[in-house]
Design goal:
By secondary structure, the chain is mainly α. It has a single domain, classed as Delta-Endotoxin, domain 1. Helix 1 crosses helix 4, helix 2 packs antiparallel against helix 3 and helix 6 runs antiparallel to helix 7. The longest helix is centred in the N-terminal third of the chain and has 27 residues. The chain is globular. It comes from Podospora anserina (strain S / ATCC MYA-4624 / DSM 980 / FGSC 10383). This is 14-3-3-like protein.
Length: 302
């Protein structure tokens, strides 16, 4: 995500590299770096506080608001000051495109309408609000709670309750921070652009390229719900790493190894849910863990 350690390393390196020739760009990159570090802590807290029933507590609401606000501010800085200035920089251009997709990824997780994740603050369903629980043709209730008056014939209402007109229904609690809407298509488009740019500019084992592909695969799985597409992308990325012949330094090698390990797990994510474990029927061993279980959170994933 916008909070991954690999992205933070490249943010710091890029800011330091352009300090003399472009102080404004460097200062904005440092601000985004600080915001990213803060955001990473908030995302870890959000995952730990997630409840199985999906009902948010007041603390979770506050945390979601903070995450949305940080992501919104990071996106404003990125789009206004970084993206227009990165044409002459190779790694920084890929990083900027990746961060843009990452911020929209967070909007999809925490603020999307309709919701695609249990992480965020969902908009109330108009059909389930107290105001919408209307009488469905049982007659007009008398003022004293008794039977309908004979002077006032009952009237049957067919079709059930009618929802409010557009623009007058219940809004997402976080609507004051960010305009409600479906951010999934634009987030998907930005991930495609970042992945295509990374493929064009960076070699197969470059850790920034792997960061792009890791979060894109996570986005496909958790938000688009394209499980097979996510596994395919992870598998292809790992194969490209082994085919790469370019040399890398020790730090990038360590990051690449970590991301390849994550991608290796993502290649198999969800597969054991479709296959029954024969030992589970005998009671001799516990059943295999399914995709409904609580997974660990590798880089780029909540």
């Amino acid at each position: 995500m916008a909070s991954s350690e690999v992205d933070q390393k490249f943010l710091g390196k890029a800011a330091k590299a352009v300090e003399h020739e472009n102080p404004l760009l460097a200062s904005v990159l440092y601000k985004i770096l600080g915001l990213s570090i803060n955001l990473s802590h908030q995302l870890v807290k959000a995952k730990k506080q997630r409840r199985p029933d999906g009902t948010p507590t007041s603390a979770q609401l506050d945390l979601s608001f903070h995450i949305i606000w940080l992501s919104r501010e990071g996106l404003v800085l990125l789009e206004q000051y970084v993206v227009p200035m990165v044409g002459a920089y190779t790694e920084l251009k890929v990083l900027a495109y990746k961060l843009r997709a990452s911020f929209y990824h967070i909007f999809v997780l925490f603020h999307n309408t309709p919701p695609v994740s249990s992480m965020g603050v969902n908009t109330p369903d108009p059909q389930n609000t107290p105001q919408s629980r209307l009488d469905k043709g049982k007659g007009v209730a008398a003022d004293d709670g008794g039977a309908p008056s004979s002077a006032k014939p009952s009237r049957n209402f067919e079709g059930g309750p009618v929802g409010p007109p557009p623009g007058f229904g219940p809004e997402s609690p976080s609507a004051f921070l960010l305009k409600p809407g479906d951010y999934l298509p634009i987030a998907h488009q930005y991930f495609k652009e970042a992945a295509e740019l990374a493929d064009k500019i960076l070699w197969g084992s470059h850790s920034l390229r792997l960061s792009v592909k890791t979060e894109y695969a996570a986005f496909l799985y958790e938000c688009v719900h394209d499980f097979e597409g996510s596994r395919k992308l992870a598998k292809e990325t790992v194969a490209q790493v082994y085919d790469a012949t370019e040399g890398i330094d020790n730090d990038m090698f360590n990051d690449a190894c970590e991301l390849v390990t994550v991608l290796g797990k993502m290649m198999k994510r969800g597969l054991n849910s479709s296959n029954k474990n024969p030992a589970s029927s005998t009671g001799s061993q516990p059943p295999a863990r399914t995709e409904q279980g609580e997974p660990s959170a590798p880089p780029g994933m909540i």
